[in-house]
Automatic annotation (TrEMBL):
Major enzyme class: oxidoreductase
Protein function: Catalyzes the synthesis of 5,6-dihydrouridine (D), a modified base found in the D-loop of most tRNAs, via the reduction of the C5-C6 double bond in target uridines.
EC number assigned by the record: 1.3.1.-
Keyword NADP: yes
Highest taxon listed in the record's lineage: Bacteria
Positions of the DUS-like FMN-binding domain: 1-245
Keywords: Flavoprotein, FMN, NADP, Nucleotide-binding, Oxidoreductase, tRNA processing
GO molecular function: flavin adenine dinucleotide binding; RNA binding; tRNA dihydrouridine synthase activity
Organism field: Lachnospira eligens (strain ATCC 27750 / DSM 3376 / VPI C15-48 / C15-B4) (Eubacterium eligens)
Coiled coil segments of this chain: none
Protein name (record): tRNA-dihydrouridine synthase
Needed co-factor(s): FMN
Length: 333
């Protein structure tokens, strides 16, 4: 499961594991934590990485920084204090405020600097001996011309895995995937490769498997939020023929929703914040239901918990879960 800020916090990860994920999701990634100079984490970050909140899932903590020494103390603290032995570097975030500080996908602008960063990290004996380091990357900033150089840097280090989202920074989450660049990665990576991007349906998955038979590990974000039961297709021995029980999936989706809702309302003060966060989920889930326009509108309009809960109950009674061939998310990020 991909890291998604505002969506895949520990409340969602745990609810997903209980309902759909058990035995099917091998790794859950936390949304990025961003170490600052004070060598401490924010309260929100601590809550998300807390061992007690991650005891039922294999969780990898994602870190966003362009300072090797900050990555190193963070990784050590995550190991020693929180018991994590696998850490992921964010080299993909396209947000303007992040990229302007040369973080996230901004790290890809200067391949020499990226090389120095990784060199310093892997020079550290403690990291080398105790911590598995992986990278989640895009394929460039404005274009993919320098992707071969970026790959050469990654190839110089023993990464636990290299997760590639084959888009450039300026694509954000839009535009077609750069499949030629991903092919280059498949043909040239010395590290284990993971494909991330635009697997929203069974059809998308089958097409990717056909195009890249060498790849056996996939990271999904929006597709799992929209259609959590899609995981049963992806993990089936015969994903093409697997017959889904959409009624059972819909029931489990309600359970997943209720678990997330209960956990979020328990930690978030007041109605507004928790409801806003729940509505983020609906921006994806609404795509896999028929007969529900009016009911979705009522959910999105609700401001108070009582209204929200009532609207969700009506929705799940009325709406029909369907398996789509294609999904186009209209929300522009
Ligand atoms: C709302 C939102 C939040 C995201 N937060 C993160 C994040 O914290 N760290 C990260 O590496 N990627 C983040 N991503 C990117 C996803 O992990 C993933 O790479 C992207 O959605 C493409 O995969 P998908 O097509 O399966 O959704 C985010 C994406 C979205 C839409």
């Amino acid at each position: 499961m991909a890291p998604m800020e505002g969506l895949t916090d520990f409340t969602y990860r745990n609810a997903y594991e209980k309902t759909f994920g058990k035995g099917r999701i091998t790794k859950y990634f936390t949304p990025f934590i961003s170490p600052n100079k004070s060598e401490n984490f924010l309260a929100r970050e601590i809550r998300d990485i807390d061992r007690g909140h991650n005891k039922d899932t294999y969780t990898v903590v994602q870190v966003m920084t362009n300072e090797a020494k900050d990555f190193i103390w963070t990784a050590k603290m995550l190991y020693e204090k929180y018991g994590y032995s696998e850490i992921n570097l964010n080299a993909g975030c396209p947000s303007g405020t992040v990229v302007s500080k040369d973080k996230g996908s901004g790290m890809l602008r200067d391949t020499e600097k990226l090389d120095r960063f990784l060199d310093e990290v892997f020079e550290d004996a403690f990291i080398r001996e105790n911590i598995k380091v992986s990278v989640k990357t895009r394929i460039g900033v404005e274009d993919d011309d320098s992707f071969p150089q970026i790959m050469e840097v990654y190839n110089s280090y023993p990464l636990e895995e290299l997760i590639v989202h084959p888009r450039v920074r300026t694509d954000y989450y839009r535009n077609e995937l750069h499949l030629d660049a991903f092919r280059y990665a498949v043909d040239n990576s010395r590290n284990k490769l993971v494909l991330n991007g635009d697997i929203f349906t069974r059809k998308n998955f089958l097409e990717m498997k056909e195009m890249f038979p060498e790849v056996d590990t996939f990271m999904l974000g929006r597709g799992l939020i929209a259609d959590p039961g899609l995981i049963n297709v992806l993990t089936d021995d015969n994903p093409q023929a697997m017959v889904r029980d959409l009624n059972a999936d819909k029931k489990l989706m309600k359970e997943l929703h209720d678990l997330v809702y209960a956990a979020r309302t328990a930690i978030m003060p007041g109605d507004t914040h928790a409801i806003h966060r729940m509505k983020e989920m609906w921006c994806y889930m609404e795509y896999v239901f028929d007969d529900c326009k009016k009911e979705i509108k009522a959910i999105k309009k609700s401001q108070r918990m009582a209204d929200y809960k009532a609207a969700v109950d009506v929705f799940f009674n009325k709406a029909m879960l369907v398996e789509r061939k294609n999904i186009i998310f209209s929300k522009k990020f």
